[in-house]
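chain below, 438 aa
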Amino acid sequence: MKHSPNSPILLTSSLHVDEARKAISQLVDDLIEESNVIADPSDIEIVSLDHAINRILAEDLLSPIDVPAADNSAMDGFAFNGECLTTSEGNISLQIVGTAYAGKPFEGEISAGQCLKIMTGAIMPGGCDTVIPQELTSTQDATLIEFHQNQLKPGDNRRLRGEDLQQGKPAIAAGRLLRPSDLGLAASLGISSLKVKRKLKVAILSSGDELRSLDQKLDPGSIYDSNRYSLTGLLNRLNLEIIDCGIVRDDPASLKHAFIDAASKADVLISSGGVSVGEADFTKQIMQELGDVGFWKIAMRPGRPMAFGMLKPIAGRIPARKTLFFGLPGNPVAVMVTFYQFVRSALLQLNGANQTEPPITQAISETPIRKKPGRTEFQRAILGRGRDGRPTVKLTGSQGAGVLRSMSEANCFVILAHDQGNISTGDWVDVALFDGLL
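prediction:
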């Protein structure tokens, strides 16, 4: 590992976002190797297809059948022996001797000079290897078609047996974060259940004397705790098991008890608040007692302060595993940004996913954006489409770390790179979409 969480460079200097990602990914790899998380048979369960969405496939799904199961027509048209295309010149005339439908094969063979009207998906009859689309033919009467020899080649418009999937070959690779299309593919193979990785258990808590639960009355200086609800929604999108540890007071004894309790139950602990340099921020003190952690200043906006590391195994916990720890900022937007950029990928990686990074696209900025080089910025924005059909993006207004409404209105981040400066109207910018990612 290039930098461990306790390395001085992580404690005293501002990391680039990419450096922080690499450090987190390496530590997760070390944790997987050390605790043998991925190979442990107890971490695999069998679930029905209707409960498999957003689970991680534990083993390659092998196709029990060839797909398609037989040579079939790729379109509506007429099936015939393509040899006549190489032995004839000019127009070809063929006699129609029957019809083949999907699910209702034609019985019999087709001879030279004959053809069969065929529907998309219908099994190719004996003696046929080529299909000409209906619109490329002309008919003299109901029993005869005519077309020009140079309109296609032997074998055109035929789907071969096993062309999509071969029996015994992987249909879906292990590590896939299962999507609706994957469940449909499994169903098309007659598979009703899948082996998936056990859901990670993720404990969440918020720290701060100013925080109140939703059923409490606000007194002067207090605020409702929104972070646990944002994190719950984010974790539910990943179909993980959530342990809500509530609100914890800003004192060492309460925090230590909460951390120990969470580590005894969870694979991962995510806290919000208590990672800045204020006098009442005790997270660093507690983590030095309970595990290994690095407190980072990340060159990003929002979300500059963040803690990351591991809690040591708790006595009596079976299996005796370390608990991955993320200490996120207290500001509501910063919590969501740091989750998107760091926590989400680490959770997927720890759970055995083979694709952990969200895809990036590009769009044209509708307005200028002020940006200082030297930090990565994640601006909340709305992706749309201009009159010319090209993708456009505009910011949701104030980008303050406490303006949660800006996240509610947004459907994407505009990502401005570390060395990037001001953006002009009409510039292309990187965009990460929310929908479909979490």
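Confidence is low (pLDDT under 50) at residues 1-12. The domain at 72-159 is CATH 2.170.190.11 (Molybdopterin biosynthesis moeA protein; domain 3).
thats it, cya
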